[in-house]
Design a protein that fits this description.
The protein is mainly alpha-helical. It is built from five helices and five strands; from the N terminus they run αααβββββαα. The longest helix is centred in the N-terminal third of the chain and has 79 residues. 26% of the residues are buried.
Length: 277
Amino acid sequence: LRKETPLETLKHFSLTHKSTTMFASSSSLTSSFSTTTTINTINRNNKSSSSSLHRRIKSTSTASWATNVRRNTKETEEEESNKATLPVSASTIKRTFLAASLSATFALATPFAAMADRGTEVRLPPIDNDPNRCERAFVGNTIGQANAVSDKTLDLRKCQYDNVSVKGITLSGALMVDSVFDNSDFSETVMSKVYATKASFKNVNFTNAVIDRATFDGSDMTGANFQNAVLTGVSYEGANLTGANFEEALIGDQDVKLLCLNPTVVDESRMQIGCKN
């Protein structure tokens, strides 16, 4: 074999080195491409896994929320059903029955007083056929007192009294239509919700009486003495109050206005009431 010259040896080395460099570059490029491909694949896989996980979480949350709603709805329906089927205790029934009974008693015992509060004409029941009903004026209403509630209506209609005394008697809720009580003593009586239209109270002594929410429309109260009496919510429409005494009486503001409009209230009576003119 011929021995290479130094120049040929150098050329051969250069060619070998270039081939090696090109091969290395090619390998590096291939490796880089492979790495990039791998990274993209991993990213796609991660993204797919993340989307799948997100969908699973969302689906799980929605299912959980729906389950909770159904559970709460069912519990609410069961509670309402339990309330509807709870047994009512005997004491509750008793209290309800008692309240209803009392309400009915009050409504039946005092309809006229309630109507009198409205200041309207009322249709009254037939007069009590008890032959001793007028004597009840001396007993009065022993239950209702100022509220006019009683076991039986105090019916004094068309009763004729003259110069009698019912001092200190509670006459609350009494019906006194067309009755006569002239020259009688009504001092210290309680006359809440009395219905006494077209009655006669001439020269009656009402000193220290409590007359509250009463109706005296069309009644003759000439010379009546209301000294130191309490008068509140009383109707005197068409009543004759000539010469009535109101000295030191406690009169409600609205009562003052109504009394001052009554043409029979004149002179000294107007000053005692406090009329402005």
